[in-house]
Amino acid sequence: MTEPCELPAVAARRLIGRKKLSPVELLESCLARIGAVNHAVNAMTAMDVEGARAAARAAEAAVMKGERLGPLHGLPLGIKDLEATKGLRTTWGSLLFKDHVPAEDEGMVRRLREAGGIVLGKTNVPEFGLGANTRNAVYGATGNAFDPAFNAAGSSGGSAVALACDMVPLASGSDTGGSLRNPAAFNGIVGYRPSAGLVPNERRGHGWNVLSVLGPMARDVPDLCLMLSAMAGDDADDPLAYTLHARTVRGEPALYFPPRQIDLSTLRLAATEDFNSALVEGVVRRKFRRIVEACGALFTRVETASPDVTGGDEAFEVLRASGVLAAHGERVKRHPELCGPNMHANVEEGLRYSLADQARAATLQTNIYRAFQRFFARHDVLITPAITTSPRPWRELYPAEIDGQRTRSYFHWLALAYYVTLTGHPAVSLPVGRDEKGFPFGLQIVGPRGGDAFVLGVAAALEEAFAGDAEFGRPKPDLAALKAAGPISAMEGFLGFG
Predict the structure, then answer these.
(1) Is 4-313+355-490 CATH 3.40.190.10?
(2) Residues involved in catalysis
(3) Where are the chain's structural domains?
(4) What's the mean pLDDT in 485-490?
(5) pLDDT recorded at residue 254
(6) Sequence-separated (6 or more) residues with CB below 8 Å from residue 248
(7) Are 130 and 343 in contact, with CB atoms under 8 Å apart?
(8) 0.85 cut: is pTM over it?
């Protein structure tokens, strides 16, 4: 029997509007699921149970009165703990903010509430989102939904695991080097990195920098599109929330939900395992080749090809370090004992770079962007693996090597995602079966410049084509095993970085 918390968000919202599902019933189902499995994975952190119950009762009353309902009306939400929530503890995974309670919602959270969403709780993150292993010294580690001893990825790891376990129907995320896409890939859900500015972010420290974006996470593409339609908008405090005077040119909800109908047989597909540059584990390469083979019957043409990403590692390293130095340099200087190893490593790296390094990185980024434009003149859509490795135990802070080859840095294993980040192009991580180790496999689908609605339509069409397929359909975790599992907090190294 399907529990209310297991319903797709679109279906649950439709039932709420038809008075066939109570928002209170849906919320209590989510709370029961959290109570049953969160001990095993530690995905949800600070909770606002009473506030959510009050909001659910109000949402139910609005339905019964026949009031106009928002697109997310009555749907419980998980909010990533990098995003400020009014009256609800927001720590950024840092001891510096372990008791911080914001006085106001940030803009994205406010828009989700205005659309009828109910903030149930926060989802776990690495310290300040630095790294793709969701561990910190405030809440501890988050375990993979398919094996809690393994990495959930990050930095939106808590959101991905909460969705995989049906704790909430929708959850928020953010992405710099793949933080929406990597945890989605590791946990069998959908993560979307939109074009910069589509989801306004008034807190971006370097306002014109396209590296960092906010975005939605969900269990399927239509649900993802529903959430995006509520997140997208305009905010003058974000320079990338681009508008023409008196007319918004981004964020019209109807562009994104329902997903655009795309005929895959009319499209030219390009596929690359590694952009001719990234270190990619053999288990990932083998699964990706099977997916490319399956796509042969779906697209008009499938070609092995890659845009030129020469210098991408260097460009991302420098530009990322610039942002981290600006955000955290003073924190590390003043409170080194309260800052984890990734913060120290990033700030130390940033201090080593010169203005010449910054100039070269910006030039390399521009070259890669222009290479993508030439590439998409010849191809309609690009697919790659979403992440370079299969999940590893979370005790390993990051992969120091991949198939015997040393990684450049603690985030080099995210190269398949961050090459795309540099360009600002939209990208989806879509779950496409399991790898040979039994973990979910994420397919990165990259669209052309500004092609948000298009690439989401492609993802929806692929999801539909693979639905129910034993090899390529969306995998789901063993909830019975998670319920019976011991607490992740009892595992060695759970709290902190040791």
Answers:
(1) no
(2) 80, 155, 179
(3) 4-313+355-490
(4) 98
(5) 81
(6) 233, 234
(7) yes
(8) yes
